[in-house]
UniProtKB/TrEMBL annotation:
Residues 117-449 form the PhoD-like phosphatase metallophosphatase domain. InterPro entries: DUF7800, Metallo-depent_PP-like, PhoD-like_MPP, PhoD-like_sf. It comes from the Bacteria. Residues 1-86 form the DUF7800 domain. This is PhoD-like phosphatase metallophosphatase domain-containing protein.
Length: 530
């Protein structure tokens, strides 16, 4: 009998359609609610995305998964969780988007504390209010910080001393890591089967500080094991995460997906690997960013990792094509604009100025010796957020202030950046320039990977008012102009494992942060955004 290896994962859902993703142990036909898809094969692994059409807006439909006609989900005898359902928007209820980042799993020893995603799943299973969708904004898996179970798998597969040590090496090892992250906890597995999920990667999905700088890329490509690693990372991300982010129409327009569907049961590892290597070497050859409208709210998920422009002469958070795409997506005539970037756009101001200074120093503002020192500091201190790409920061500031002023259609009621990465949570408000539309930065991190003590206290100090002037002075000495925006932290920082929820009802928007306490969640704070 054909078995379900991973999933089902409920992915892109709109008023009429839904996508269910699965991995199986052999080629087969996968059927959900009368819709069917044949699996495709990559490196001996079998996947399918079943596209269901004809759903009613505002409906709630339980579903089963059949492999070659046999029901494999729900699993026989599993009655701890309610039936998996597809809930379509359009029923007039408020929009609720849960989000978070940075989740280490599994963690059998509890080293990383309670899992906010698991606690959230338990609450929903107990009848809690369901979100419209779940946004996982980076570090869904940790390819360079491994737990005991995957270390044992790697040891059995290629020995303890093979390179890279303590990290994933290729596609096969990524498949095992995804299985651990999304199947080990039954509550999380059920959650992913019944709540539409949208994702974007961050560095640990590939490797810590991924694409920090041109020097970093040169160093990594000099390693004999890196080619297999980056190909495996991006190929697996395309299959396990990216394809499900897309609508059926967007997937149909994807040339690689079309070639794979035409290949039948042939293993198409060569096609996927070629695509993945090209995506790394030529970031403008593919787009990982995407946009999705939830009624009158636009969500833009921004790739702030693979889309970077890093050459000896230029550096930008987004290459020219990606920046033009983001500029086109930033429009008014909507009630709310949400811009999700794994890396916070607005950091505590002392950190922002420090990264401004470091970018200028690494670029030669203080000579060649200063540039070499600046690069060492950049990589050691992870100074590679939006603030470390000054030109990109200013370009996005122009976009959002133009929207907020009503220069690109009617101004929305709120604009908010949603981010993770930094392993603490906070709310920042733009205070200047003054606009009729409030602009906020909402950070929720981690879901499960708390910051170590000394780093925690360093960030507490960086968040305090009155510390920014010292780093602004350094930036000024490196001839960095003042930022085009002014902002301040109004809530946080909090260092718990947390999940946040954006709730939108008409022109009103608010955010709520909840901390994990065992398998429960405790509200930490809430704030209005509009």
């Amino acid at each position: 009998m054909t078995e379900l290896v991973l999933g089902p994962l409920l992915r892109h859902v709109d008023e009429r359609t839904a996508t269910v993703w699965v991995e199986t142990d052999r080629p087969c036909e996968v059927a959900v609610l009368g819709a069917a898809a044949r699996t495709f094969t990559v490196h001996g692994h079998h996947y399918a995305l079943v596209e269901i059409d004809g759903l009613e807006p505002g409906s709630q439909t339980p579903y089963e998964v059949r492999l070659d006609g046999e029901v494999v989900w729900p699993e026989p005898g599993e009655d701890r969780f309610p039936p998996s359902v597809i809930r379509t928007p359009g029923g007039g209820e408020p929009l609720r988007l849960a989000f978070g980042s940075c989740r280490r799993s599994p963690d059998p020893e509890g080293v990383h504390g309670p899992d906010a995603l698991s606690a959230y799943a338990h609450r929903l299973a107990g009848g809690g209010e369901r979100p419209t969708a779940l946004l996982m904004i980076g570090d869904q898996v940790y390819a360079d910080e491994l737990g005991d179970e995957i270390r044992a798998f790697i040891h059995r597969r290629r020995g303890a001393d093979s390179e890279p040590q303590g990290e994933l090496a290729d596609f096969e090892e990524y498949t095992y890591l995804y299985r651990l992250a999304w199947r080990t906890d039954p509550a999380v597995r059920w959650l992913l089967s019944t709540v539409p999920t949208y994702t974007i990667f961050d560095d640990h999905d590939v490797r810590d500080d991924w694409n920090t700088s041109y020097a970093w890329r040169e160093e990594m490509w000099s390693q004999p094991w890196w080619r297999r690693r980056i190909i495996g990372g991006l190929a697996s991300y395309w299959i396990y995460q990216h394809l499900g982010n897309l609508s059926p129409a967007e997937r149909a327009a994807d040339p690689l997906y079309a070639r794979i569907r035409d290949a039948g049961d042939r293993d198409v590892a060569d096609l996927v690997d070629e695509f993945a290597e090209q995506a790394d070497r030529r970031p403008d050859s593919t787009r990982w960013s995407y946009a999705h409208d939830f009624g009158a709210t636009r969500l833009i998920m921004v790739d702030s990792r693979c889309a970077r422009l890093l050459t000896p002469d230029r550096r930008a958070m987004l290459d020219d094509a990606e920046l033009a795409w983001l500029d086109e997506q930033c429009r008014g005539d909507r009630d709310h604009l949400l811009i999700a970037s794994s890396l916070p756009y607005l950091l505590p101001r002392s950190i922002h100025h420090a990264e401004n200074w470091n970018e200028a120093m690494s670029g030669g503002a203080w000579g060649r010796a200063g540039a070499r020192l600046g690069e060492k500091i950049r990589q050691a201190a992870d100074l590679e957020h939006w603030a470390a790409f000054e030109g990109s920061f200013r370009a996005v500031a122009e976009d959002v202030t133009a929207v907020a002023r009503g220069e690109r259609g009617a101004a929305p009621a709120s604009i908010a950046f949603l981010s993770g990465d930094v392993h603490y949570s906070y709310l920042a408000r733009v205070t200047a320039p003054d606009t009729t539309t409030p602009i906020s930065q909402v950070v929720c991190s981690p879901l499960r990977n708390p910051l170590a003590g000394r780093f925690r206290w360093a960030n507490v100090a960086a968040c305090r008012r009155g510390t920014a002037w010292m780093f602004r002075g350094l930036a000024a000495l490196a001839r960095v102009p003042r930022p085009p925006l002014r902002w301040r932290l109004t809530r946080g920082p909090w260092f718990d494992n947390m999940i946040a929820t954006i709730e939108i009802d008409g022109r009103r928007a608010r955010v709520r942060w909840e901390a994990a306490d065992g398998t429960s969640l405790v509200e930490r704070s809430a704030a209005t955004l509009s």
